[in-house]
Amino acid sequence: MIEIDGITKRYGDTTAVDAVSMTAQTGTITAIVGTSGSGKTTLLRMINRLVEPSKGEVRINGTPTSAIKPHLLRRRIGYAIQGHGLFPHHSVARNIGAVPQLLGWSPDKIRARVDELLDLFSMAPDEFRDRYPSDLSGGQQQRVGVARALASRPDLLLMDEPFGALDPIIRARAQDDLRRIQRALGSTIMLVTHDMEEAIRLADRIAVMDAGKLVQHGPPADIIATPATPFVAEMVGEADRPLRLLSLIPVTEIAEDGAADGPPLPADATLRDALSACLWTGRSALPVVGASPAHVTLDAIRARVGGHG
Ligand code: ADP
Ligand code: MG
């Protein structure tokens, strides 16, 4: 568990981060969202002590970070930034194995971990472990950067706009990959982004920063349904709110018994998928794939959004 307790950073008259407190449970993704200059990067860098707080404390599984030497702390906390930050003259394997090597892991253990991570990131170890960063595509470099940050099984992975440089299509893939890998490894992640869409896709909890203050912290569905301030509402995008909410609700939640005509929706479809499919096919109900006949209706979708209007 990561506990951020009244943490503040002042630069002269500027309060970059103003008394922020929040807790992140082990094995979850927290997205820190806000506009440029809201203090996201400063908050993240106080967690691994790249920036020393003016006030307040961070505890990792109960231990204050102030009690751990910064260079040791940073071996326990992965850090991935925009642009992968790989060592250009080291192979993929050496890049990924950098921290385990510092920690004194045996060569066999490092090799096994490198291959395990390459597999997880869908990069065949035999093909990729001896390559150099310049022989990789942008998306592959990014994956190696994240694999490196995860190599030593850190207590926490900090990511600062990790996908900011990727084009939108690769970006969506990278987000899906991160979520899959995070679930497989059970990693705890704090990720900074200015993109609310990204936060909604990835996070278990969203923390919204505005002018150094934490203005709302909660599950994506709560942030969308009940934004705490006009600023949060603006971040979420008033117009998109109903659609975003729909994209978080599985179709199975409002499916009714009984058959319907038309192309069936997969069991893992969301209400947003169901709405699109209904509109696209011009039908007021569609079947849902499952053990017993079920269907979803436009009326039920409308009723579900209306409840949050
Ligand atoms: P974000 O990552 O949300 O864009 P930052 O944490 O980088 O925001 O910055 C928050 C505020 O703190 C900004 O006003 C920025 O100018 C200021 N700031 C950040 N780092 C420094 C620094 N080293 N010296 C002075 N001011 C800083
Ligand atoms: Mg920043």
TrEMBL record:
Keywords: ATP-binding, Nucleotide-binding, Transport. GO terms for molecular function: ATP binding; ATP hydrolysis activity. InterPro entries: AAA+_ATPase, ABC_transporter-like_ATP-bd, ABC_transporter-like_CS, P-loop_NTPase. Gene3D superfamilies: P-loop containing nucleotide triphosphate hydrolases. One of its GO terms (biological process) is quaternary ammonium group transport. Residues 2-236 form the ABC transporter domain. It holds the Pfam family ABC_tran. The keyword Transport applies. It comes from the Bacteria. The keyword ATP-binding applies. Belongs to the ABC transporter superfamily. PANTHER family: OSMOPROTECTANT IMPORT ATP-BINDING PROTEIN OSMV. This is Osmoprotectant transport system ATP-binding protein. It comes from Salipiger aestuarii.
